[in-house]
Amino acid sequence: MEFTFVSGDLALDLAGTVQHRRDDRRDLLTDPGGLARWSVAAGLLTDPPEMSAGDLAAAVALREAIYRSATAVLNGAPPAAADRDLINLRAAAAPPVPRLTAGGAVHRDGDAAAVLAAAARAAVDLLAAASAPGDDADGTGRGVLKQCQADPCTRLYLDTSRRRTRRWCDMRQCGNRAKAAAFRARHAPGHDA
Predict the structure, then answer these.
(1) CA-to-CA distance for 12 and 140, rounded, in angstroms?
(2) What residue stretches are annotated with the Zinc finger CGNR domain (predicted)?
(3) What confidence score (pLDDT) does residue 162 get?
């Protein structure tokens, strides 16, 4: 199981742990250990903590609330009240705690609630900025919320390209596939140039 972090935002990377939501859905968080590994891979914790089935269920519920909320905002609607309430509830917990080790490194400690708090806080910031009027409304250069245009990808991402014209969540995965398919279509027998 390989996690990818190409969305440009922690909340969107959590939402991206489901691939191909429309067809051939693939969930990367299928057990508590997967959530623990994602927490480390995302840079939230230094060591994988013990996670329970309840922790996994809470993470999946938050992930889906984030995805539905971001999709609603993309379509010009506010997040549903239940999703907003869940995100706010999870954001109220304490996030992971960084501590400086004797060797000068940062060690990040926390449990499932801390991991979900970090993702929920990122979602609050993301959704507030994406809901504001105008392009890149928060003025931070954060980017514009978009959905990957490659089929069958359903990943959401922040377009931080200079002109905000990025079409794919990741050039190496979706961009190359889309460009290769377009090339094959252009060079197929019977295609008029």
Answers:
(1) 18
(2) 145-187
(3) 83
